[in-house]
Sequence to fold (124 residues):
Amino acid sequence: MSLYNQIQEAISFIRNRVAAAPRTGIILGTGLGNLTDDIDVEAEIPYREIPHFAVSTVESHKGSLVFGRLGGHPVVVMAGRFHYYEGWSMQQVTFPVRVLKFLGIERLIITNVSGGINPHLKAG
Fold:
């Protein structure tokens, strides 16, 4: 099955479960999973149920798409993500972002945790 057809299958599944059509997507990085507690959740879909989605193996990643309102703004949140180092291909790692775009997401906020060993580097 082509990538385009896989995306269409995932979108069809999501749209059958969710009426919301947010324009903002957020990909939560490690340590930010609790942000979903601040969302007025309208729907939550585990990745394992969405056709062609990978499933995160990182224990702290919830592994679901959360649709709702954050500060009154409609959003879809990726609560957990997939990593190349988990053994997924780059196509699988980027698949959810492609799906979000086809769902109508116009703004994507991506968060992560990073560090450095240079003592002169400051946060920010």
About this structure: DSSP finds two helices and five strands in the chain.
